[in-house]
Amino acid sequence: QRQVVESGGDTVQPGGSLRLSCAASGFPFDYYTINWYRRTPENRREFVATISSNGRNTRYADFVKGRFTISRDNAKNMGYLQMNNLRPEDTAVYYCHASSADTPDIWGQGTQVTVSS
Fold first, then answer.
1. What is residue 30's three-state secondary structure?
2. DSSP letter assigned to residue 91
3. Which segments in the chain show pLDDT lower than 50?
4. Edge-to-edge strands, sheet with 78-83
5. How far, in Å, are 28, 40, 86 from residue 89 at the CA level?
6. 3-state helix, strand, coil in the chain (%, to 5)
7. Cα–Cα distances in angstroms (integers) from residue 55 to residues 5, 72, 74, in the given order
8. What is the pLDDT at residue 102?
9. Which residues pair with 46 in a beta bridge?
10. Which of 108, 64, 60 is nearest to 90 (CA)?
11. Which 3 state secondary structure label does DSSP give 63?
């Protein structure tokens, strides 16, 4: 069964940090682009960051540039999103998404991040 499972969500104060993890199984992880999206309390789905299959190329949404870092470890079938200097507007459910040409996308179940004082 092809799946990705997110973990690491929590409640933190503004300015805090979290590291989200995405554990992949059931598919050739190193052939897939890994993306992070989030769904806000206003029910908006937002692109957050992406990393290429070999990890060499990354891209970020403007609102996380300089604060979030996406990475992956293909040997461990793991993706990560390091989030620093968190803001209340970062509160959302964060989803890991794996994509590759000509195959169905794979979505995780999401992990809740709440930034509140």
1. helix
2. -
3. none
4. 3-7, 18-25, 78-83, 68-73
5. 34, 8, 8
6. 10, 50, 40
7. 19, 6, 9
8. 80
9. 38
10. 64
11. helix
